[in-house]
Write a structure and sequence with these properties.
The protein is of the alpha/beta class. The protein is built from ten helices and eleven strands. Strand 3, helix 3 and strand 4 form a beta-alpha-beta unit.
Length: 273
């Protein structure tokens, strides 16, 4: 239980096969401390498809191994990695992209705060990821786009929060600034889909932690992407060779700017959708 409290909100339940359907319906993830064979046989009658099945990880009673059984790309692999980090278990991850250290379509969509519109493309795209870096292209409409079956179409959900900050900024400072910007835009934390910044900030612990609390992965945009945007006002980031950070990050990922960049102490925030 304690091993999961930092990243999840665990509840301890005693095994009851008759209540498994209710457990799968009520909880986002399931850790079954029992043999893989028992878990597989118990789940057989409750599986529907990879997009709706609940992520399940089996852990042996000696706490030596965590095996994602269902939903590897939908949270089970991440859960197994968390157990490995906290308890020293071996994460027996078998999905091809993850075991090869490659990205996958599902994680790409999650990092962009998007949903996959044509799920049937996932097999072809993930097979391609095993051999090469699959480009992510953004098209601004109105447009009519004709795609083949092996092209995944992602539709973004939530608003984009662009953040720039001074070196060593704390998580509290970032969250305070983001909350102030959201209030000005008359938006809420739950609406944030993407937390974006510059590649230079990829190791800023305060920003990483703030993004985690907001329920987002921090997306770090390259110099080329940021400098291809046209922010509304000059930025001190020009000292670093950038046209800006917060506002260009929003312009690169959102359709429109709903709150131009504003400085809050050591943090700059812009918002788009």
């Amino acid at each position: 239980m304690q091993a999961l409290e930092e990243s999840y909100h665990p509840t301890l339940l005693f095994w009851d096969k008759e209540k498994l359907a209710d457990v799968l319906a009520r909880y986002d993830h399931v850790v079954a401390v029992m043999a893989v064979g028992i878990v597989v046989r118990s789940l057989c009658g409750h599986l529907h498809d990879k997009w709706s099945d609940r992520p399940v990880v089996a852990v042996d009673s000696c706490l030596r191994c965590a095996v994602p059984i269902v939903g590897g790309h939908h949270g089970a692999n991440e859960l197994a990695e968390c157990l490995a980090k906290r308890l020293g278990l071996f994460p027996a991850i078998t999905t091809a992209t993850d075991s090869s250290g490659r990205p996958c379509l599902e994680s790409a969509a999650a990092s962009l705060g998007a949903r996959i519109a044509n799920r049937d493309s996932s097999k072809a795209v993930n097979l391609a990821f095993l051999k090469e870096d699959v480009p992510v292209l953004r098209l601004k409409g109105p447009k009519i786009v004709l795609v083949d079956e092996d092209v995944a179409v992602l539709k973004r959900v939530g608003i984009v929060v662009g953040v720039g900050a001074r070196k060593g900024v704390s998580c509290a400072e970032v969250l305070e600034a983001v909350d102030a910007a959201l209030a000005e835009a008359e938006r809420k934390r739950e609406e944030v889909g993407i937390f974006a910044t510059a590649y230079l900030k990829k190791d800023e612990e305060g920003m990483i932690e703030a993004a985690k609390i907001l329920g987002c992965k921090m997306i770090c945009l390259s110099e080329e992407v940021l400098n291809s945007q046209c922010p509304s006002t000059p930025s001190r980031a020009s000292d670093l060779g950038l046209t800006g950070v917060a506002e260009p990050a929003v312009l690169a990922l959102a359709e429109m700017l709903i709150l131009p960049k504003k400085v809050y102490g050591r943090v700059t925030v812009a918002i788009g959708e």
